[in-house]
Amino acid sequence: MPVTPEQEAEIAELRATPRQTLRAVSEGMEKHLYEVKPVLDHGFVRVIDYMGDDAAICQAARVSYGKGTKSVQNDAGLIRYLMRHWHSTPFEMCEIKLHVKLPVFVARQWIRHRTANVNEYSARYSIMDREFYIPEPEVLAAQSVVNNQGRGEVLQGEEAARVLEYLKTDAARAYDHYEEMISQDGQQGLARELARMNLPANIYTQWYWKVDLHNLFHFLRLRADSHAQYEIRVYADEICKVVADWVPAAYQAFEDYRMGGANLSGKALECIRQMLKGEEVTQESSGMSAGEWREFQSVLNG
What PROSITE patterns does the record tag this protein with (predicted)? Predict the structure, then answer.
């Protein structure tokens, strides 16, 4: 199950006892506080706390730039200016704290983003739950033949059934042995910190993850991208929905300039200038490598 009965009771209690505050409040975020957003088969994301809103970003920017922002007519315009010109510090004035339940192999990808504060469930002190991520058949795919980091065609028929059976039985067997090793039923039992080494990478863990908005946007730009691994992308997609309600102006600018935009090299810009003049441009004349040229063509063709 995504949440335990104890967690459900805690969530209900927290949402039933609102408190008065003088701090900045985002009405869009308030509706998400503590609520569970299911992800994958047993995972979830939920907002535990947050700080700041769109106005906090502008407040910080105007302190920093002073008269330099007088030409900006409104907060949304200022935020778009900041995003467009890569002024990151004002976005760091907003923070979010998430409670995330996720498979261990997804957590190992996620933790590569080292700009957050993390506190994870400890298998040294506690016993891991018997919950494993088992993919839906439609996301079971073969290795891509063109991308070493990606997936190819979806497995079909007997091949898909064979792989699913391996995933289920191997996870169950590993957990059975884990339980037996730490058992106290008439035996000494192995220390939990050692027994955990036998657990599979698809077992679920949990953590609290606190990050500022600038670094969250960096995380989302990479992990909500269509090329990201499916199992981490679905978490990023849920977080995107929350952020869009929390800081709508900032999220709109992020979508336009980071998710929907493209970074072009000097050579690529020169090629575009030549194309606008009606000149023919080829990979050979562009000065780009074959890989750069393919990526450039992908940007132009959408």
Answer: THYX
